[in-house]
Specification:
heterodimer; A: mainly alpha; ABC transporter involved in vitamin B12 uptake, BtuC; 2 strands; B: Rossmann fold; 6-stranded mixed sheet; 4-stranded antiparallel sheet; 10 helices; binds adenosine-5'-triphosphate; binds magnesium ion; AAA+_ATPase (chain B); BCAA_Transport_ATP-bd_LivF (chain B); ATP binding (chain B)
């Protein structure tokens, strides 16, 4: 094998730029699973929805409303999409998911799987399955930067930095603040927390909304990198679930670290043995399942 | 009777329970519990294992699957209210049977978890003075404390909230006699501060000198009400009920 260090570093950067998406999505899944005990199969579809809010806001909404000039730019979309999709998520929680908490995990999983299929079906009806390019990438993020070992798209660098900041802020709030303490306590013993006078049902709704908003944020960040397609979430979520299995459900830091690391490993594999790049994560998943079924960061 | 006059002087009714029925799923556990607690009183719920004492406390807080009857706290009916509103309306502080210390929270976080319900709660500093053991272990995870320390923490965290009615479930269970004695002193000093306390106890010797009144629960009903002054005369009956 003759692989240069530069190539390895370059592939690792590309791996990292996929890894931040794994991290943000598995973080949201972990938060939701912790408090709601629901494996949110709609997570990929909600990520897709976030990307579509950015796309529609940029290219379609103006003409639809009769204001040809109106465009929702990328920066506002970074706020608007998570808010809208987060509210949609809270609506789903209030009207449907809430009814299933008393039953086995499998019901929540089936419901969210159904929601995912409906969302995908809806968008497949109106948009091209092979993807629509997002034209709203801000000019300030056009072009490339020289990292020394490679030229790297400025926007991807921005997406990496922003995702990592968001992930660690989320970790900080959950593990180091009073709000986070209430959340952690709620994960452990929701009834007692409620008996102390805390509105746990509301907290559950907001938490679901937040986890979903993270997915939508990832969707907006993905829109300029990958084209926006109804199936973008379905493709990604399979890898993300493998990440979740490897990291173990429920650990916040575990979700972040596993997501980033597996992105890096995937990049590394692409440099060293490209044919294995798409399967390496599943290979690791199998090994982890055999050796440590609860996941690397999970509790038995 | 002078005792009764004293009881009335102690103040208004803070908790009134009438015809309380409760279910876990299909199992019907409480069959019409009635009792009242006045401001400043210490009242115990005694009974054998499985009599329904824990369930009575849980029903007050809405932690059972279904309940009927009437529960009035501070004069308002709360049986239809969601759990989080009950604690606030009644200014109730709850110390569960299993202590309910959170393993993912350290001692400080456990202590400051329950929100403030009213004025007059103890400050964190006062609490650490009262329970010096806890002060030394403020940054340990809650479940790394010993059983006794966890029990103190479970008591301490509701004292911070300014709750005016404490619902304490078997706070002496599994504790060394010295600690039980310390807890007894704590409860007495809380009573002197004017707090109202419902004690679920197995340990009659611990409860007897603290309480104004005892309710003996059997098969989900109040089988007997015993005023503090009647303990001597009804001693045999009490022993029979508790089979001690
Ligand atoms: N979660 C539950 N589901 C079903 N039945 C329960 C549940 N908890 C308690 N019970 C039943 O309710 C009855 C009363 O239980 P409870 O815990 O109130 O008793 P207790 O008086 O507190 O006794 P102990 O001294 O054992 O704490 C028991 O027969 C018990 O088996
Ligand atoms: Mg009990």
């Amino acid at each position: 094998m003759n692989v240069s260090l530069d190539l390895i570093l370059a592939q690792m950067m590309l791996g990292l730029s996929a890894g931040v998406f794994y991290a943000m999505l598995s973080l949201g899944l972990a938060i939701i699973f912790g408090l709601l005990n629901v494996i949110n199969f709609a997570h990929g579809a909600l990520y897709m929805l976030g990307a579509f809010v950015a796309l529609i806001g940029h290219s379609y909404i103006g003409p639809w409303l009769g204001y040809e000039d109106f465009q929702l730019g990328f920066w506002p979309a970074l706020i608007v999409a998570p808010l809208l999709v987060g509210c949609f998520g809270m609506l789903l929680e209030r009207t449907m998911l809430r009814r299933l908490y008393q039953f086995d995990h499998i019901y929540g999983l089936l419901l969210t799987f159904g929601i995912a299929l409906m969302l995908q079906g809806f968008f497949t009806n109106y948009f091209n399955v092979s993807g629509t390019p997002y034209g709203g990438q801000p000019e300030s993020l056009n072009g490339i930067v020289n990292l020394g070992f490679m030229y790297f798209p400025k926007f991807r660098l921005f997406a990496i930095v922003m995702s990592i900041v968001v992930c660690f802020l989320t970790w900080f709030v959950i593990e180091r603040t009073r709000l986070g303490a209430v959340l952690r306590a709620g994960v452990e013993n929701p009834k007692l927390v409620q008996a102390f006078g805390i509105n746990v049902p509301l907290m559950v709704t907001l938490t679901f909304g937040f986890g979903v908003a993270l997915a939508a944020l990832a969707g907006v960040l993905a829109a300029p990198i990958y084209s926006v397609s109804p199936l973008m979430g379905a493709n990604l979520i399979i890898v993300v679930f493998a990440v979740v299995v490897i990291g173990g459900m429920g650990s916040i830091m575990g979700a972040i670290v596993t997501g980033l690391t597996l992105g890096l490993i995937q990049g590394l594999t692409k440099a060293i043995y490209p044919p294995a790049a798409n399967t390496v994560i599943f290979f690791i998943m199998v090994i982890v399942l055999l050796v440590r079924p609860a996941g690397l960061f999970g509790k038995e | 009777m002078p005792e009764q006059a004293q009881t009335q002087a102690r103040g208004r009714e803070l908790l009134r329970i009438e015809g309380l029925n409760a279910w876990y799923g299909e199992s019907h556990i409480l069959h019409g519990i009635d009792f009242t607690v006045n401001e400043g009183e210490v009242v115990t719920l005694l009974g054998r294992n499985g009599a329904g004492r824990t369930t009575t406390l849980k029903s007050i807080l809405g932690l059972v699957d279904r309940r009927t009857g009437s529960i009035r706290v501070n004069g308002s009916e709360i049986i239809k209210q969601p759990t989080h509103r009950i604690a606030r309306m009644g200014m109730l502080g709850y110390c569960p049977e299993d202590r309910g210390i959170f393993s993912r929270l350290n001692v400080d976080e456990n202590l400051s978890l329950p929100p403030r319900l009213g004025d007059g709660g103890m400050s964190v500093d006062e609490i650490y003075q009262m329970f010096p053991n806890l002060a030394e272990r403020r940054s340990s995870r809650g479940t790394q404390l010993s059983g006794g320390e966890q029990q103190m923490l479970a008591m301490a965290r509701i004292l911070r909230t300014g709750a005016s009615v404490l619902l304490l479930d078997e706070v002496t269970e599994g504790l060394a006699p010295v600690i039980v004695q310390a807890l007894g002193e704590t409860i007495r000093s809380l009573k002197d501060r004017g707090l109202t306390i419902v004690l679920v106890e197995q340990n009659f010797r611990f409860a007897a000198p603290l309480a104004d009144r005892h309710y003996i629960i059997e098969h989900g009903r109040v089988a007997e009400t015993i005023e503090a002054s009647e303990i001597e005369t009804k001693k045999d009956r009490i022993n029979q009920y508790l089979s001690v």
